[in-house]
Amino acid sequence: MGCWQRTLRSGLIAVKKGMTAAWDSNGARHAITLLQVRQNQVVQVKTLAKDGYTSLQVGSVDKEARKCNKPELLHFQAYGVVPKQVLTEFRVSEDAMVPSGTNLNARHFVPGQYVDVTGITIGKGFQGAMKRWGFKGQGATHGASRSHRSLATISPKSPISSFIQ
C-alpha cells in the first residue's frame, strides 16, 4: 500500500475589501469575497533538517526600516528582504518550498482550487442584549419605561423551593 501525501502550499496574506456576487452558466448566484493581496514575499525558509519542520515565513506590506526595532531589522537583513509590516508562517510540504525573497501573488492559486481562509473579526465593543443575543425586546407599554431594549428577567422571582408544597 502506497502512502498518499497531499502537497501543502504556502498561503498569502490579504485584506478583505468587500463582497459581490457572480452568476454561473446555470444562472445560480454565488457570493464572492474580494481580497487584496499586497506585496507578499517569502522572508524565511524553515527546513526539516535545521528547524524540525518545513514552513515558509511570508511577509506583507513594506515597512520603513526606521520603524523596526533592531532584532526585526537584523532578521530581515539576514534574509535579504525589505522589512514587512505583517509576518505569518505557513506550514508547507517539502515539494512546495520556494527560496527566500520570492514574490507571491494571486497567480499562486489555480482556478477551482479550494482554499482555507482565516481572519480576525472587528471588535464590536459593548452590545445590548437585543443585538448580542437576538432578544425580542420588551413591550412599549404596560409600565416598561426606559427598558424596551434591555435584558428582561429570565428566571423566577422567588426560589423554586417556595413553589413546592
Largest beta sheet: strand ordering: 5-4-3-6
The percent range for helix content is 10-25%
Shape field:
elongated
Structure class: alpha+beta
CATH class of the domain at 40-96: Alpha Beta
Could you please say which CATH topology of the domain at 40-96 applies here?
A: Double Stranded RNA Binding Domain
CATH architect. name of the domain at 40-96? 2-Layer Sandwich
Q: Which sequence of SSEs, written as H and E, runs from N to C?
A: EEEHEHEEH
Mean pLDDT: 86
* Unreliable sequence segments: none
Biggest beta-sheet profile: 4 strands, antiparallel
Please give the count of helices: 3
Report the sheet-strand fraction: 25-35%
Number of strands: 6
CA-to-CA gap between the ends?
71 Å
Based on CA atoms alone, the radius of gyration comes out at 26 Å
Give the key terms:
165 residues; alpha+beta; Double Stranded RNA Binding Domain; 3 helices; 27% strand
Describe this structure in words.
It is a single chain. The protein has 165 residues and is of the alpha+beta class. It has a domain at 40-96: Double Stranded RNA Binding Domain (2-Layer Sandwich), CATH 3.30.160.810. Helix content is 11%, strand content 27%. It has helices at 48-51, 70-78, 129-133; strands at 14-23, 29-37, 40-46, 55-62, 84-91, 103-104. Strands 5-4-3-6 form a 4-stranded antiparallel β-sheet. Strands 1-2 form a two-stranded antiparallel ribbon. The longest helix has 9 residues, at 70-78. It is elongated and about 70 Å long. The mean pLDDT is 86.
